[in-house]
């Protein structure tokens, strides 16, 4: 199998009439990477995938696969294979015929095709199921057949369009691991589209977060979670408490923000925005629920918030505590379940603190809508 | 994210071979089987009926005489009207409308009954029974009615047996057979579109309305009929167009004199061999029926897209 | 609950009236096929007879008509199904702004009166011939004035719209991702069409073909203009019916009705069987126990009716070989003669009474009218005799009426129908 073919998107803009689906996207994906595009539905991530697979030509910019410009090359000529959101298994063909379809259209003999299909069926642990129809398989089995069908074409790049979205939670988590393993085994470049941050963060080497046709940030999953570069990324990936305000002072990469309702708070400036933030700017500060903890009485007031408990929800591995701060500011805190019955009582006034390195500040901007 | 593509993308999306084949077939159909034939008929209707030698000659000029003939007959001074043909024309249009209305009333209850009682064996049997006459030849169906309406037909025999009449009634000469035959011929084209839309009506809507105390009349007026409107208009359009354009039923069930406008067209073509005159009459028929249908569709706010559902 | 009962009664009466209107004429017509009376009627009933079937099968015009109807039907199916399929595929892709205009154009032929379509086809191809300078006797002139060619085009112009409607309904459920998946896996557009879309459309193509064939087979309004010097079954029938009616047309109608019922029942039975199998698969119904009836018939009234009907047809064809209405006919004739004789006697008596007064001599009674005895007795017996079908040798009887479906089936075998 081939491995390690890089994909580069250079200044890609895609328009449908007056509507711009993708604006000036620049992405370079290393060969053999598991790369994800993460964003809410309608953000243009599927459009990018279709441009890579060749179903549409970008209005501007170039798609390079392995350094070759793909302009004018149709989907059936590109070294890519796409796994569709609904899998698009051919319902009237048997499983083995589905898997070996790419060989059929290339004119391979039935015996050859059957042999290759059986190998792939063994690889996806569906040996002996080749004569079934897709409708006779379970959701997870269909998933694996779709992967085998795509791999049978020996693509340099495998494109996956939210392939796990139709599965139930357990299976989805299982398939994440399996996909990652398959990718490591075959070693080819995977480009994965998802709106599920869990999928993106667990599987990917790198993630691009998209909003309304624009790529906000490309980085490792870890960095995207810890150092979001825009308010959108901060609020879309994981949960976050947002505090709006104005920058009061900056020292090095730390800033004090005078928040609208919770007083002056200290935090880190997110790395991508260091230098972009000036005193007096509108800013947003984000603190993740798990970064908050109950404060000792003598805590530094610049990293302390007081609030009243409104509700507490038990989530299994943790408790979610919902609090109301000054001026009606809603705050969420997450406390790991370490065997305690509950954390707090409704109406109780709590003092919460956080570590300034766990809070990030950036210029104010658009948040991800719920 | 499926975007509708514009024409220039057509070949990219279908490939050159398939794209050409698709466009080729559709163009052949639309251009050579529909548009050009209609246009050449229109052109023909404005020409004189000349002997072959004079076609293309100096006498081959455009004229309105074929249309004038419908209004004034062969009277070139335009003093008298062509009452015979005009009467036939008006009768055809009005009778086709009446047949359509008759079919709406006759079919609506059955369409409702079939559409709302789902899946029982009895209903399936009824549907099978409906399909059978649907596939029997139009001519044979007219023939069946002629057997019944004839002088010594079943109906006259029955009426005389019951002493309702002493002499056989001439149903054919009195046009009763024709109207019964027209109503009979296209009744299923009214029933099936109605049945299809009523079947798609959620029963819960009716039950909810009943629950709120609506009367049956009210339920039909406010819920069922508005929902069934596209089906009713679609069926009515088909029945009206087919009735107005019917030829077999008038030929077989009509009396000795021509009753139906299509018969005049037929006579111009096949008996008088005056194609130009026949084409003009056909254009009049086509234009007037289309205007009526479009008007009705406009009044009832139904789109072309609902036709044929 | 008396009002509910009232509704029930009203509904029952309404259904009865509706179905009598719909089916009654067909039943009456079918019955007249078996009455030996030379005018199609059920009353007075003369004799039960198969002779009209015999007349029908010996009618060369009808046999020719059926032959050309089938030829034209096949041509129309091929042309209209491919045009309808192409039109429906284009409809799914056409630019949204053009969509409704395009749809109006491809649906319009359904609404154009058949007479108009026939005329316009005739006029256009005549003009086209003139345009190409085709002169009488040239190939092009012959083609553009050929009844079969023109009829196929004329019929296809609107039957393609019906086919298109069938395809649009099916295409709505087609997942275009499947085509893209095929392309993505390296298929060409033609391969994707042949291997993905076409198999998906196959059931719709089958039903559109049946629909197109039937619509073509029974079309009259368009055909009567375009057929020129050929004949189809409908134009032959129309001519016969206009010139004078006789029960051999009833016998044709009867055959068509029986075939239609067969097809409808077979379709329904197959549907039920499929539904049941599906239900069994989903565990919603139990496997049918093999009792006295074969499994496909259990709980499937349509299948039972189908077998019963087949049985009745076999019995009918069987008795037709032996049954002869001769005795009955003689009886009827005798009864008629007796009635006439009685009438004559009455007249004689009246005249005698009159004459007696005048004491005049008696004249001879007028001779009783006689009707010619039909030549053939067992109708079906002759149908299957080779000499009756045609003067060709290969028209020898192929199927003895063993199975119900085939009883009348071979009558429509195109090989049996010879042209001159």
Description:
The complex is a heterotrimer of chains A (370), B (309) and C (420). Chain A has 370 residues and is an alpha+beta fold. Chain A has 2 domains: 220 residues, Rossmann fold, CATH 3.40.50; 133 residues, Nucleic acid-binding proteins (OB fold (Dihydrolipoamide Acetyltransferase, E2P), Beta Barrel). Helices cover 23% and strands 35% of the residues of chain A. Chain A is built from 9 helices and 20 strands. In chain A, strands 6-7-8-3-9-10 form a 6-stranded mixed beta sheet, with helices on both faces. Chain A has a 5-stranded mixed β-barrel with strand order 11-12-13-20-14. The longest helix of chain A is centred in the middle third of the chain and has 18 residues. Chain B has one domain: Orthogonal Bundle (MetI-like fold). Chain B has 309 residues and is an all-alpha fold. Chain C has a domain of 185 residues: MetI-like (MetI-like fold). Helices cover 70% and strands 0% of the residues of chain C. In chain C, helix 3 packs antiparallel against helix 9. Chain C starts with a helix and ends in an 11-residue tail after the last helix. The C terminus of chain C is likely disordered. Classes of the chains: A alpha+beta (370), B mainly alpha (309), C mainly alpha (420). Chains in contact: A-B, A-C, B-C. At the B-C interface, helix 1, helix 3, helix 4, helix 5 and helix 10 of B face helix 1, helix 3, helix 4, helix 5 and helix 7 of C.
